[in-house]
Amino acid sequence: MIEYNLNFMHPQYGTTLNVDIDGAFTIEEMINNLLLSGFINENKNGYDFELMGQSLERQMTFDEIQELYDGAVIRVIAHEEDAVIETLVTKKLLVFCIKHPSEPLILDVQLNETAPLSNIIQQASEKNFVQGVEGILHLQKGNKLLDLNENAANNGLTEGDFLQLTHANAVKEDPIETAVNSLNKKLESLETQLQTELASIKEALPAANMIPIDPTRAVNPTMEHYESIDTIVNRLREA
């Protein structure tokens, strides 16, 4: 018995489900299992599987798929209620630069101008740009979260835009909070440094009886307030 470790991509959200499968399973049996698991919902028009752009026959077993390998991403295709009539109108392809969620990697993708942005996530998975993704991926342009169910124009995108793939559970840092925390740490460090320097100055003060007395002041006292040397030194030490 041969088992395969495969990833099934949700037809709408781009979510992938990782499953170990007996090679004797048929495509139709696996579709039923995905329905029972709740990964996909009932669809009266049915579902099919697609691997690297090739549709898989429902009665075919996984052992019969020649190009199958561990870790492969199989797209779940949901059939629409109304068949789309093909026209001869050529639709424009837009090129976007996609950044990996956690690695310094860039992927160029082409997107039909009328296609939803979820197609970008599907392409990234099919090209193994992202693998074994758990949970839903998002797309952002700068700080703006994009709607995966809408096309590029409805999201305010133009060809050549730089987009960021992010995980749904990614923690966003508040730049203001980060700057305030950094400033507080610097202030604490400066206060510690000043306290250390003040302690060093106090330790370096000579004993009161070792400070020479001003003979002019001793011989010609004035009406000004006068503090003895002992008083001044002791007050500095207690500061």
User: Which fold name is given in CATH as the topology of the largest domain?
Assistant: Ubiquitin-like (UB roll)
**What ranges have pLDDT less than 50 throughout 5 or more consecutive residues?**
none
Radius of gyration: 36 Å
Q: H/E order of the elements?
A: EEHEEEEEHEEEHHH
Helix content: 25-40%
Number of helices: 5
Report the end-to-end length measured between terminal Cα atoms. 83 Å
What can you tell me about this protein's structure?
The protein is α+β, with helices and mostly antiparallel strands and 239 residues long. The protein folds into four domains: 3-78, Ubiquitin-like (UB roll) (Roll); 93-167, Roll (Ubiquitin-like (UB roll)), CATH 3.10.20; 175-204; 205-239, no CATH class. It is 27% helix and 23% strand. The protein has five helices and ten strands. It has helices at residues 27-37, 118-126, 175-204, 215-219, 229-238; strands at 3-9, 16-22, 47-51, 54-56, 73-78, 93-99, 106-112, 137-141, 144-145, 162-167. Strands 2-1-5-3-4 form a five-stranded mixed sheet, with helices on both faces. The longest helix is centred in the C-terminal third of the chain and has 30 residues, at 175-204. The radius of gyration is 36 Å and the shape is elongated. The model has no long low-confidence stretch (mean pLDDT 80).
What order do the helices and strands come in, and which of them pair?
Elements: E1 3-9, E2 16-22, H1 27-37, E3 47-51, E4 54-56, E5 73-78, E6 93-99, E7 106-112, H2 118-126, E8 137-141, E9 144-145, E10 162-167, H3 175-204, H4 215-219, H5 229-238
Parallel strand pairs: 1-5, 6-10
Antiparallel strand pairs: 1-2, 3-4, 3-5, 6-7, 8-9, 8-10
